[in-house]
Write a structure and sequence with these properties.
This protein has 377 residues and is an alpha+beta fold. The protein has 2 domains: 238 residues, Glutathione S-transferase Yfyf (Class Pi), Chain A, domain 2; 104 residues, Glutaredoxin. It is built from 12 helices and 9 strands. It has a 4-stranded mixed β-sheet with strand order 3-2-6-7, sandwiched between helices. Strands 1-9-8 form a 3-stranded antiparallel β-sheet, with no helix packed on it. A two-stranded antiparallel ribbon has the order 4-5. Strand 6 and strand 7 form a beta hairpin. The radius of gyration is 20 Å and the shape is globular.
Length: 377
C-alpha cells in the first residue's frame, strides 16, 4: 500500500503526485534501470561525477558570493541535499540562501514545487534548470542543485565541496556564534576523513543496494560495517569525530546515520539476503547519532517526516528515500514501530563530558595528510 507524496510541504497533508515513480521494490530494480550507466561490467556501482562543479569564491571564474541570490533545490530524503540544509541552518545561511524541495520523481526526473522557483521560468522538473544552463546536458539531473534565482541556471551541483564553500567564503554572512565547521588547522584531516566517509559510508550504502552481484554487495556491506565499528571505537572518548570540535565531517556522517534504519538498511537486507546490524549495535556511534539528532540545526520538521520519524497527516510514514509512503509499517520498510523508533532517538545522549583529543589514527594521522598535497597542485 504505497503512495507518492509531496515533501515540499511535508508538515501538511501529503499531496499525491500522478505518474510519479519510486525507487523500486526494495531491491532497487526501478532505480537500476535509471542508473544502468553507473554499473560497471563487474557489477559495482560507480557514481557519476557532477558536471557543473564550479566553486563559490571571490576569484576569477568562481561563483560570486551574493546573499539572497541563490536557491538550493533537492530531495529532502537525499543525503547530499540534507548535508547542505544542515550546514545552512548551523551557520545561519538559511537566512540568505533559499531552500526548496522537489516533490518526487517521474520519468522526466525530479518534480519541482509548482509554487517554487520553477514557476518564474515555466519549469516543471529540475532538469529544466540544467538544460537552461546547458542545452546539451545529458545524464541525471542530480539533487541538490544551486540555482541562480535571476537567470534560472544551475551554478553548481558539486555537493562534495559545496558545504566547504558555505563554511568558508560565505563566512561573512554566518550568524553570530556559528560553529567553525572547517577550521584551518584541521582541514587536511577533515578532507581525508570526508573521502573515507564518502567511499565507505555515504556512498557505501549505495554500493550495497545497487550492485548487481551478490559478492560485490556483501563486500561493500563488510566495509560499511567495519567502518561503523572503527568509528564506534573512535567515539568512545570523543564527543565528535575530531574530539571537542564539531566539523563538516560530523555533518557528512550524520546524513547517512539519520536515514540508515528507514532508507538504507531494509534495502541492504533485501540485497544481501540476511540480517544486517542496526545503528544501536554500535553503542558509541548510536549515542553520537542521538546527540547530533538532538542538536538544533541537524534536523527539521520536514526531514522528520521525510525520513520516516513522524507520520504525515493521513497517518502514513515515508520510506525508500523519503518520497514513498506506507501505512503498513513493517521491517521490510524500516522499524515496524515508528513511534518507538522516533522516541529512541530522543533518549538522553549527553556526550559533553567526553574530552578526547582531535588526533586519531585514521586518515591523515602522523602527518600523512602532507602526502596528499599534490592534489592541490
Amino acid at each position: 500500500m504505497t503512495q507518492q507524496i509531496s515533501l515540499g510541504r511535508a508538515v501538511r497533508a501529503a499531496c499525491l503526485l500522478n505518474n510519479a515513480t519510486n525507487d523500486g521494490d526494495g531491491n532497487g530494480n526501478t532505480a537500476l534501470t535509471r542508473i544502468k550507466d553507473e554499473i560497471t561490467a563487474e557489477g559495482d556501482f560507480r557514481r557519476q561525477g557532477n558536471k557543473i562543479s564550479r566553486r563559490f569564491g571571490y576569484g576569477r571564474g568562481q561563483i560570486p558570493v551574493i546573499p539572497n541570490r541563490y536557491r538550493v533545490i533537492g530531495l529532502i530524503g537525499c543525503g547530499w541535499n540534507r548535508r547542505q540544509r544542515i550546514v545552512l541552518r548551523l551557520t545561519g545561511l538559511d537566512q540568505v540562501v533559499a531552500i526548496e524541495s522537489v516533490l518526487g520523481k517521474t520519468d522526466a526526473g525530479w518534480i519541482l514545487d509548482p509554487e517554487g522557483l520553477g514557476e518564474k521560468f515555466g519549469y516543471t522538473h529540475l532538469i529544466d534548470f540544467y538544460r537552461a544552463t546547458d542545452p546539451e546536458f545529458s545524464g541525471r539531473a542530480t539533487s541538490p542543485a544551486v540555482i541562480d534565482e535571476l537567470t534560472g541556471k544551475v551554478v553548481t551541483n558539486e555537493y562534495q565541496t559545496l558545504t566547504l564553500d558555505w563554511e568558508t567564503v560565505w563566512k561573512p554572512y554566518h550568524k553570530q556564534g556559528a560553529p567553525d565547521l572547517y577550521p584551518d588547522f584541521l582541514r587536511p584531516q577533515i578532507d581525508l576523513l570526508n573521502q573515507q566517509l564518502f567511499d565507505d559510508i555515504n556512498n557505501g550504502t549505495y554500493k550495497i543496494i545497487f550492485s548487481t552481484r551478490q559478492e560485490v554487495a556483501q563486500a561493500a556491506l563488510d566495509v560499511l560495517e567495519a567502518r561503523f565499528a572503527e568509528i564506534d571505537q573512535r567515539l568512545e572518548n570523543r564527543r565528535y569525530l575530531f574530539g571537542p570540535y564539531l566539523t563538516d565531517s560530523d555533518v557528512r556522517l550524520f546524513q547517512t546515520l539519520a536515514a540508515y534504519e528507514v532508507t538504507y538498511r531494509p534495502r541492504e537486507v533485501k540485497r544481501v539476503g540476511h540480517d544486517v546490524k542496526h545503528l544501536w549495535d554500535y553503542p558509541n556511534l548510536w549515542s553520537y547519532a542521538r546527540q547530533l539528532f538532538q542538536t538544533p540545526g541537524f534536523i527539521d520538521e520536514e526531514e522528520l517526516h521525510a525520513l520516516g520519524f513522524l507520520p504525515f497527516d493521513d497517518g502514513s510514514y515515508a520510506y525508500s528515500f523519503g518520497y514513498t509512503t506506507t501505512k503498513e509499517t513493517t521491517e521490510d520498510n524500516g522499524p515496524a514501530d515508528r513511534r518507538a523508533y522516533y522516541e529512541s532517538w530522543l533518549e538522553p545522549a549527553d556526550r559533553s563530558k567526553l574530552t578526547g583529543s582531535w588526533e586519531y589514527s585514521g586518515p591523515g594521522a602522523g602527518g600523512m595528510d602532507a602526502l596528499w598535497a599534490f592534489g592541490a597542485i
